[in-house]
Amino acid sequence: MEQLLLLIFLPLVGAIITAFAGKSAKIVSTVFSVVSLVLALVIACNFIPNASTQFEVNLPWIADLGINFHAGIDGISLLVVLLTNLLVPVIILSSFNHEYKNPAAFYALILFMQTGLLLVFTALDAFLFYIGWEAALIPIYFICAIWGGKDRIRINMKFFVYTIAGSLFMLMGIIYLYLQNPAHNFDIQAFYALNLDSAQQGWIFWAFFIAFAIKMPIFPFHTWQPDTYTAAPTQGTMLLSGIMLKMGIYGVIRWLLPIVPFGVRDWGQVAIVLSIIGIVYASLIAFTQKDAKRLVAYSSIAHVGLIAAGIFAFNQQGMQGAMVQMLSHGINVVGLFFVLDIIFNRLKTNKIEELGGIAKVAPQLAITFLIIVLGTVALPGTNGFIGEFLLLMGVYNYGIWAAAIAGLTIIFGAVYMLRMYQNVMLGQTNSLTITFTDIKGTEKLVLYTICALIIVLGVYPKPVLHLTEASVQHLLEQVNQKLNTVN
Amino acid sequence: MNIIITISITAFIVLYAGLFKANKALLPLTVVGLLTALGFTFCAWNGNAVHFGMMQTDNFALAFSGVCIVGTLLIFLLTQNYFHAKSDNVAEYYTLILFALAGMIMMVSYKNMAMLFVGLEIMSVSLYILAGIRKKDFASNEASLKYFLMGAFSTGFLLFGITLIYGATGSFDLDKIQAYLVNNTTSVSPIFYPGVILMMIGLCFKVGAAPFHFWTPDVYEGSPSLITTFMSTVVKTAGFAAFLRLFSGAFAPLHDFWVAPLTVIVCLTLFIGNVTALFQKNFKRMLAYSSISHAGYLLFSLIVLTKNSGSNVLVYAAAYTFASIIAFAVLILVKQKTGSDSFESFNGLGKKNPLVALSLTVAMLSLAGIPLTAGFIGKYLMFLNVMTEYKSLLVGFAILNALVGFYYYFKVIVAVWFKDGAETELSAPAQYKIVLLVSVVITLILGIYPAIILNLI
């Protein structure tokens, strides 16, 4: 149990120290994020891959209101915890070629956000989950609004109000569940055991679903996303797309499905339809983008749409696919945004038509970028393939037409991503791109790490699948059992 | 009782100290007096003593007295150089604020409606003078006159209400009124009902709930900032305590009757307060309208009466008081430097004054109700309170209003951190730093570990 507390609060301690570290904030935050990663790996090694919740902590917090500091890790949590603690050092390292003004605040906010994210991913108490949910939002708002690009104030205000609107309705749902719970606490097991009728579950479903859908985002709740991704500093975009959107997916799996299975049965179809509309819609818009960063932002909506569809299809393949894809998408999208950041950093543009021929002057970047793009378009042998394959299989088991339309994401994705790659990297160098210099130092370190992960997970995904299998199985059984009891 | 005596005596001593031009001694004297009163508050804890059948110092009264005294203490610490720059007769400020505080202590601990009236008048009369204390200033005079006229009106309503209730029950005593209602469930005298409504209107005037809020923005804007701070925090807290004491105690058996008009008042208050605050260009006026909207959230505790209603109001009022004190303290500093209290004068504050800006940010987050600050716990308790009867529509409405609130509170944060401005360096005296630090710490502690305050009442 001490391990888990250490895992959650180490980044917070790091944040406080970093805030006072002044010029050496970069190094201090790197050290803390790497130690957190090691800690997460230690926990992963000690984790027994069965369905049980391990490293559980249950301390009274606000006893009068039935609020406990109850957290623990099962296979599903562990996966996202690993993703978080893996990506945060990568993201911090990726900032080394930047000189942000007021670095102490910048890195402290990243670490503060990490604690919020870890709370979300380990909380077994709904109130704690909510606190983590908001604690992750505040730092990213400041990161994006202070260090972001053009028009950042308006865009981030929209992002903030959008997401917090969702979460307040979720809070209302949580209070409702709390009041229904005879024990008057926020314990997740007590919430699982509630006997709510279909109508109640329908309301709760929407209260939670909208919060999660905004976070992911699912069509039509996505309108904040492209602007925010584009205007944010690259590290902010990476945090948002790599980790933060997983909060929504994780929320669906941990809180939505098991608490309101009847709600999901009644309304899940709507969710799938919205997800699939989102896939097609985002892919089509991605085609027309002239800015590479916006293109990646839209492609992210398409990928997340597929993950959501896989989860709401509600079968073993879809769920496992979602697990693997959460990890893969996090790694790939961080890689993509980093490459675009490198290009922007050198050439001050991400406009596709102004670029071209970079591969000639930067062969190492070309190779690594290609691997990341191939991972994103789900080429067999890369990490993207396993996840998307399982997801499509899951959706296929749900309905052939759904799978046929959702499958377009792979074709569309391949077309617009490869076209983007072609226009940016291949062809003739122009007067701008001739000045490009190849990657070096921490850039190399980050990109090589990401490429290695893409290939290793693509060739040998078994550890990941094995890690989550028992927990996913357990979740499915639990929900099915509840669905089978007469309500 | 000791508390009121201590505060009143302090007020007189301060007045005489002023007479002998001992201006340097005023603040230490006041602080010692208030700390003594605070000490008496602690000593009386769990005593539940009844004084001459007129006042009852139960834990409810003591907890609110404590919040009021601490709030006043912090405001006094902000007076350094503030009054001195405005007038030679600073002792009057001190004395009047102390008299107002004595009135408030009566308002939070009355057992007899006569005491409610007396307390309210002692407080109000002091405030009328305080609002207009800058004799040569047009806005200050306007504020004072408006406040006086509106206040006199509302006192009229209140008195008329008290009279009707006396006519129905034959008593001013809260317990006897409650007993009357309990014993005559079917045959409550018809003049009792208008009495309740008139008292509700009178109290709504005092706490600035819509549609009886029209005086608030002008009075808050026109009064000296420090007096505004006092009016919008401590006075408001006392007003709500008085409201709650009456309606969740004596009038509780008639809850079904008065909850409908109250719900209308709550919705109007939330909506008008938030939407008008949204369009303000002046920081002080924005705080005035936002204080109206907070009155709306505070009244949530009366819509559903639970055993926690008092405690919920205490948490919310404490959260609101400390956050507002920070906001006004920073406002005073900024205004001293730039001479303006518009949002623009806050632009770029964070660059040169990171700690002041950080305090202001915490205050805004708390007022907006962001987790890990006291404001969130307050809002959460209010929502929880109303949800216990599953009034989801009302909570949904409140959530929409909270979203509007985020927008204008974040406008301040945006100005402070994200906009480029004059980058003036504020000269914050040590006392301001203490007040900011204490308020920020209290806001965060109540936000992270509210258990310490939840069980008080």
UniProtKB/TrEMBL annotation, chain A:
Domain of life: Bacteria
Transmembrane segments: 6-22, 29-49, 69-92, 104-121, 127-147, 159-179, 203-224, 236-257, 269-288, 295-314, 326-344, 365-386, 398-418, 445-461
GO molecular function: NADH dehydrogenase (ubiquinone) activity; NADH dehydrogenase activity; ubiquinone binding
Domain NADH:quinone oxidoreductase/Mrp antiporter transmembrane: 124-409
Any one Gene Ontology BP term: electron transport coupled proton transport
Keywords carried by this UniProt record: Membrane, NAD, Translocase, Transmembrane, Transmembrane helix
Membrane topology: Multi-pass membrane protein
InterPro entries membership: NADH4_N, NADH_Q_OxRdtase_chainM/4, NADH_UbQ_OxRdtase, ND/Mrp_TM
Principal location: membrane
Cellular-component GO terms for this entry: endomembrane system; membrane
Domain NADH:ubiquinone oxidoreductase chain 4 N-terminal, chain residue ranges per copy: 6-119
Compartments where located: Endomembrane system; Membrane
Stored NCBIfam families: NDH_I_M
PANTHER family: NADH-UBIQUINONE OXIDOREDUCTASE CHAIN 4
Sequence similarity: Belongs to the complex I subunit 4 family.
The protein's name: NADH-quinone oxidoreductase subunit M
Organism listed in the record: Pedobacter miscanthi
Automatic annotation (TrEMBL), chain B:
Pfam families: Proton_antipo_M
Domain NADH:quinone oxidoreductase/Mrp antiporter transmembrane span(s) in chain numbering: 112-400
Gene Ontology CC terms: endomembrane system; plasma membrane
Chain ranges passing through the membrane: 25-47, 59-78, 90-108, 114-133, 145-166, 191-214, 258-279, 286-307, 313-334, 355-381, 393-418, 430-452
Protein's cellular compartments: Cell membrane; Endomembrane system; Membrane
Domain of life: Bacteria
Keywords: Cell membrane, Membrane, NAD, Quinone, Translocase, Transmembrane, Transmembrane helix, Transport
The keyword Transmembrane helix belongs to this UniProt entry's keyword annotation: yes
Primary localization: membrane
Membrane topology: Multi-pass membrane protein
Example GO biological process: ATP synthesis coupled electron transport
Entry EC number(s): 7.1.1.-
Catalytic activity: a quinone + NADH + 5 H(+)(in) = a quinol + NAD(+) + 4 H(+)(out)
Molecular functions (GO terms): NADH dehydrogenase (quinone) (non-electrogenic) activity; NADH dehydrogenase (ubiquinone) activity; quinone binding
InterPro entries: NADH-Q_OxRdtase_suN/2, ND/Mrp_TM
Its job: NDH-1 shuttles electrons from NADH, via FMN and iron-sulfur (Fe-S) centers, to quinones in the respiratory chain. The immediate electron acceptor for the enzyme in this species is believed to be a menaquinone. Couples the redox reaction to proton translocation (for every two electrons transferred, four hydrogen ions are translocated across the cytoplasmic membrane), and thus conserves the redox energy in a proton gradient.
Subunit-structure text: NDH-1 is composed of 14 different subunits. Subunits NuoA, H, J, K, L, M, N constitute the membrane sector of the complex.
UniProt similarity note: Belongs to the complex I subunit 2 family.
Protein name: NADH-quinone oxidoreductase subunit N
Source species of the chain: Pedobacter miscanthi
